[in-house]
Amino acid sequence: MKIYGKQIRTVDFKNNKLELIDQNKLPFEVDILKLDKLSDVVHAIKVMQVRGAPAIGATGSFGLVIALQELDKNNWIQGLNNAYESLLASRPTAVDLKNCLDEAISSITEVTEYDKALEIITETAIEIANRSADSCHKIGEYGAQLINDGDSILTHCNAGALATVDFGTALAPMRIAFEQGTKFSVFVDETRPRLQGSRLTAFELHQEGIPYKLIVDNAAGHYMQQGKISMVITGADRIALNGDVANKIGTYTKAVLAKEHGIPFYIAAPATTFDLETKSGKDIPIEERDGDEILKVGSVYVTLPEIETANPAFDVTPAKYITGYITEYGVFSIDRLSELQEILAKRKSN
Ligand code: MRU
Q1: Do the Cβ atoms of 95 and 273 come closer than 8 Å?
Q2: Out of 166, 237, 275, 315, which one is annotated catalytic?
């Protein structure tokens, strides 16, 4: 993505270090973290210096490279398995993390020699990151075909370049449509409690010159009722076999509202976000985060610190509310989901 005119990848690997844009400092400061310790990579995922399903997937696979670099050449196999477990446990909902960790670790299952293992797992992690960026570009190409002059698109949370290796999922169709000269605008939900909409999505759109308006989370229904929203596009953290989608808390509310108003509701996600082992949304683990995220805005308490909270980071949108899944293989409606799942299963076994 372009930040102040400079091309930067959200997740990159240079000089044996993992480079991440510290998303907790955006939009006020663009700080690139350079990590070479597994503990720092796990911390970056947990405290959301890096966040967004495809971004944490790519980070996880580079995390294994970092872990292997730190391990003893003569005794690394158990250490790498432990690293896999601690990366996997760093955030529970986005399945991209597991899918990318599995791909990276299985690339060296037969390898016993340290140098060979390091070479192969590094190549695999780089390939995962490059493929992720390419997939997002294709999502953009397919999704842009759904956007017409005069459209006004609602998006929730941040499913932009910052949530991926590059380009984004929900924002990718908007990037391409804008490049193609389509005249549309975007409503950005601020996305409490962590404000990924106002801090990250609005920032990305602002950088690109795409017309947008930041709104409070509760305003979407009002604009739908007024006929001012023509389409909703969000990302996803995990898509179950039956098409149910876990995404940022508040997505479900927007999907129900969209159905009530006859507005198409699209999910944009790459192959790594599909979970072929989880039957339905009921089986998706929902991360519960610290209540301080609600009690504070940024670092400032807006109520008494002792107030009781409940803070689920994600919710599940049942498949019946979803008009289509925008993927790198095209746009699929629920009745064609099995076709997509066959493609994904084949890709996994190759
Ligand atoms: O808690 P976050 O910020 O990691 O949640 C991110 C989202 O819910 C995104 O919509 C999702 O990961 C898709 S990212 C392309």
Answers
A1: yes
A2: 237
Query: Each residue of 206-261: pLDDT tens digit?
Result: 999 999 999 999 999 999 999 999 999 999 999 999 999 999 999 999 999 999 99
Contact 54 CB / ligand 1 (< 6 Å): yes
**Ligand 1 binding pocket mutation candidate from 158, 200, 288 (most atoms within 8 A of CB):** 158
**How many whole angstroms from 93 Cα to the centroid of ligand 1?**
10
Angstrom distance (rounded) from CA 157 to CA 196:
5
Q: What is the mean pLDDT of residues 4-21?
A: 96
* Cβ proximity of 287 and 247 under 8 Å: no
Contacts for 197-202: CB closer than 8 Å, 24+ residues apart: 197/155, 197/156, 197/157, 197/158, 199/23, 199/26, 199/27, 199/158, 200/23, 200/26, 200/27, 200/158, 200/160, 200/162, 200/163, 201/155, 201/157, 201/158, 201/159, 201/160, 201/171, 202/27
Mean pLDDT value across residues 24-33: 97
Task: Establish whether residue 248 lines the binding site of ligand 1, counting it when its CB lies within 6 angstroms of any ligand atom.
Answer: yes
Ordered structural domains, the chain, with CATH: 2-136 (1.20.120.420), 139-349 (3.40.50.10470)
Predicted model pTM: 0.97
Measured from the Cα of 314, ligand 1's closest atom is 8
290 is catalytic: no
164 lines ligand 1 (CB under 6 A): yes
